[in-house]
Amino acid sequence: MQGERPSSVSSFAAVNVPRYTSYPTAPNFNGSVGAARYGDWVARLSPDATLSLYVHVPFCAELCLYCGCNTKAVRRRDPVDRYVKTLSAEIGLVASHLKARRVSHLHWGGGTPSILGEAGLQTVMERIAGLFDLSALREHAIEIDPRHASPSLATVLARIGVNRVSLGAQDFSPEVQSAIGRVQPFDLVRRSAQMFREARIHGLNLDLMYGLPRQTAAGVARNADLAASLQPERIALFGYAHVPWMKKNQRLIDAAQLPGHQERLAQARVAATVLTGHGYRAIGFDHFADPRDELAIAAQRGTLRRNFQGYTTDRACALIGFGASSIGKTPFGYAQNAADIAGYTRAVQAGRLPAVKGIALSDDDIVRARIIERLLCDFSIDLDQLARDQDFREELSALAPFADAGLIRIDGRRIHILEPGRSFARLIAAAFDAYLPASLTRHSAAV
Ligand SMILES: C[S@@+](CC[C@H](N)C(=O)[O-])C[C@H]1O[C@@H](n2cnc3c(N)ncnc32)[C@H](O)[C@@H]1O
Ligand code: SF4
């Protein structure tokens, strides 16, 4: 393995790049896609197409200062109850456009999906089960805030068929927790993991973060150790994306307490060392999995995928998003629902699909999407296999500094991301992003 040169490497860490949960990325969506176009795309899916469903719940009891998700704090019950009704109506509306019915993956995200309440979750689930074929459902996952977990919630989730729970752990130290406005001692996370296991929900993921205010490499290493002690099948390790120009709640974070780029890199690396030391396999640039977990198996077989939830085994033909701000993906393009809950509700009440923006995929987008996805999943691509007819001369020469820094190796038309380059995978993949110059500053740091 080649060594890396620290000076150029730290300058790479300072560049802003997307997380590539889609290509083209969401900042490139525009008003050319709306209800009519998305309706047409959905209707063109074949009756045999497998579907992945995503239900977005944009509410939390209170906002964490670091949060970059599409969510808002809600104190009263009525907006949430109204949202359950709107979601149910939207599910019916979308189903009326679709011939495809077979669902392989179902994911509840947010926000805090459990805020719908046990009755609300069951209502939405019954609506889905009444309109879709769930007999081949492989993965049914939900994002859970451990502060709002309870044995009765775990029982309800098991009853509606949830088989994977993702707990937001972030950081276990009291100093960091107070700086990010999210106090949840380790023992609370431990008890919540236990509740789901007792309810026989065995797929457990923990979200950890680095790059948060007051975090140190030693603290992040300790978080990784504690997370591993709970023996989750998967651990996600997200670098804090500080985008206060987009997220008002982040303006309350004291930027002076944020670790610098070198420190972020050190935190990411030490966490990876600790987790792999515990026997986890590194998956892509921000996930870790038990070698027996299907994510690890997919990574080994080269069948790992990337979607809006990050790394996944989901290979469905289309992703159908329900809820405000949710994104759908069809082979023809992406469509995003209105993010403002009032606008989303008005559209659904008027019997209109609430899609307000998106992007149709060109042939070039499809080729680049595949290159970026394979680079981020396999850390290695062969352009002769993925895009025989395009020379990508400019992209290859843009990658020369990464090769000089020992982060990648280029063999003719093959690109391999080397071990030290894994933390920079998004930046390396960005060389193939034809939209990037226009949207560069709208993203967060590369590491
Ligand atoms: C929807 S939340 C998880 C569920 C639940 N709301 C919770 O917080 O426990 C999804 C995850 O995104 C990550 N996240 C949130 N804001 C982030 C940011 N600004 N940068 C990086 N990751 C972030 C956190 O790790 C969080 O657990
Ligand atoms: S991190 Fe989770 S709980 Fe905190 S504000 Fe974001 S979505 Fe809500």
Brief account:
The protein has 447 residues and is of the alpha/beta class. The chain contains 17 helices and 21 strands.
The bound ligands are: S-adenosylmethionine, iron/sulfur cluster
Our measurement of the CA-to-CA distance between the termini, rounded to an integer number of angstroms, reads 21 Å
CATH superfamily of the largest domain: Aldolase class I
Q: Give the C-level CATH assignment of the largest domain.
A: Alpha Beta
Number of strands: 21
Instruction: Please give the share of residues in helix.
Output: 25-40%
CATH architecture of the largest domain: Alpha-Beta Barrel
The largest β sheet comes out as: 9 strands, mixed
| Helix-strand category | alpha/beta
Can you describe what's shown?
- The protein is of the alpha/beta class and 447 residues long.
- It contains 17 helices and 21 strands.
- The strands form 6 sheets. A 9-stranded mixed beta sheet has the order 10-11-9-8-7-6-5-2-14, sandwiched between helices. A 3-stranded antiparallel beta sheet has the order 15-16-17, with helices on one face. The protein has a 3-stranded antiparallel beta sheet with strand order 18-20-19.
- Helix 4 runs parallel beside helix 5 (151-159) and helix 5 (151-159) runs parallel beside helix 7.
- The longest helix is centred in the N-terminal third of the chain and has 20 residues, at 78-97.
- It starts with 5 loop residues before the first helix and ends with a strand.
- The chain binds S-adenosylmethionine (SAM) and iron/sulfur cluster.
- The site of iron/sulfur cluster has 11 residues, from loops.
